[in-house]
Amino acid sequence: MTASFSTDRSPLSVSARPAPWTGVARDPAAAADLPGVQAQRRTLVICRHVARCVAREFDVAPDALMGSACRRQPLARARQVAMYLAHVLFGLSLEATARAFGRDRTTVAYACRKIEDWRERAANERCLIRLERACLPERACMAGIAEIAQ
User: For the chain, what is the mean pLDDT?
Assistant: First the structure.
């Protein structure tokens, strides 16, 4: 992109050139070849699977857990559990988990702390064990995919 400057302090004149390559492919087939895009898709698949498992257990809509602005306690607790499982069980980074759930990294860290405290009650521990078992087939599948890719 070129710019020409004038001495009369008028706005910059910018010539029309295509934008530089930003690393994001416009063609979905070409995007699948980018490692970052593949990692984002993997993260999204994992988080959606976890959200479905948690939604079943908490009797809420899975879409309500992904990016919803609702902060009511039952939905917020279910979202915290889903973010906790995605981070702890699947080893996703706080940033990746936050992006998938439409939240901030610090929100995921807070959710993990809250669920660790919440887990101390026996009934809650049993709930989390059930959810971990429900998510394990996906975890095994994702591990197999990672081994094949290497």
Answer: 77
